[in-house]
Amino acid sequence: MTKVTLEIEGMACSMCESHINEAVRKAFDVKKVSASHSKNQTVILTEQEIDEQALRQVIDATGYRVSSIRSEPYQKKGLFSFGR
């Protein structure tokens, strides 16, 4: 699984977060997407790689601007994952 973190400019409220989340869900097959206007960021969890250019286009179409994209491997941390 991959964690994609987007730095997004222009979000001001929870409705902005909803627009971003909905646009990402409609355009890509993702496990989870969570936007935060207070952090100016959106985090996406996906099993398939997402094309960065396509992702930028989807966000741009909502009226917001992606300033950076960061991808990294993601492992779910469960209750009993400590000590591994």
UniProtKB/TrEMBL annotation:
PROSITE patterns referenced in this protein's UniProt entry, alphabetically: HMA_2 (PS50846)
What GO molecular-function term can you cite, just one? metal ion binding
Q: Which InterPro entries does this UniProt record tie to the protein?
A: HMA_dom, HMA_dom_sf
Every copy of the HMA domain together lies at 2-67
Checking Gene3D superfamilies in the record gives:
3.30.70.100
SUPFAM superfamilies from the UniProt entry: HMA, heavy metal-associated domain (SSF55008)
In terms of Pfam families, this protein maps to: HMA (PF00403)
Q: What is this protein called?
A: Copper chaperone CopZ
Species assigned in the record: Intestinimonas butyriciproducens
